[in-house]
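[[Encoded backbone]]
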Amino acid sequence: MADFLLPDLGEGLTEAEIVSWLVEIGDTIAVDQPVVEVETAKAVVEVPSPFSGVVTARHGAPGETLSVGSVLISVGSQSFAEPGVVVPAPAGPVDEGSGNVLIGYGTSAAPRRRRRARVRQSQETPRASAKPGVISPLVRRMAKDNGVDLAVVRGSGPGGVVRRCDVEQAMAKPVASGERRIPLKGLRKTVADKLSASRREIPEATVWVDVDATELMAARAALDGVGLLALFARFAVLGLRRFPELNSRVEGDEIVVLDDVHLGFAAQTDRGLVVPVVRDANKLTTKELSSALADRTAAARDGRLGPAELTGGTFTVNNYGVFGVDGSAAIINHPEAAILGLGRIIDRPWAVDGQLAIRKITELTLAFDHRVCDGATAGGFLRFVADCVESPIRALADL
């Protein structure tokens, strides 16, 4: 018998919420087989087991938050994939290695999987009782702190067990005063903490400019497989070559100017706003950058991005024009030094060679940390990007 503990998922994360169990009590599992899907503050990930054997117990219900090091599942008649850990020898053949690697688990041997088999065990799904079944003390505490009567909450777990999501649903229902409460947790809490830190620590300023994007729209139509965000991101990377102060962060009494551009971009998903990161964007071609942005966007919306793909950015771009707005005083993605925004592109009257014409016009905005540069640098960067938008083919030809 052995207990599999919630491993360190990296990036300083200390807890995770159970989203769904991928195995049942009585299942025979293999080394590296995903056993549970958990949501951290940064992503939804599947956690593979380092053991093979029979699942004898699951610890926690969907909606519960567990700390790193808490027991996830108990496994009987198991083997362990990591050398140096002594466990009882299995009765039959076992998997010989682990391919998946979480911090503290796994080996370099190639994984071998087998179809899980259902085995009868004495542990059965608990029958529903007249009283509310609450396994987790966290759920009880949440209900108590928010005035939720567990006796009237309908549990969605096995046998009517009340889960965290059931309490949250009860909390979200309007009360007599017409109010409703939405827990600030998970990804939304992480975003809130970052935005609060940005406002608290960064003395930001914003500059903006209206730009003729007619040629940009023509270039996007002509360049097969290159999207608008990719062109905009490319111009931002080019601008950072000339104004590297904006690709920096403040550490104590020092400004750390970074050589490589790890480009973050805002992406709206069902889980809320996330900022995937394309690493070494300054080393990619325009088509490679476009492909990377598309891949990260799809992965973000599917919830497939890991913590490492959502952190470490050095500069962020945001196409808030997709929401139908012209401009935004965006909040800098702490601890970065700047964020560049693109507004909606609409037909507007514009002077061209002394004549009034209808052109595709957009607004660019740059919010920047005034500690790392002054208005001349920020204005110079924004004007450079604006010139690229107005003459995209020439800007790309200069690469």
Summary: DSSP finds eight helices and 19 strands in the chain. The chain has three domains: 1-124, 127-183, 188-397.
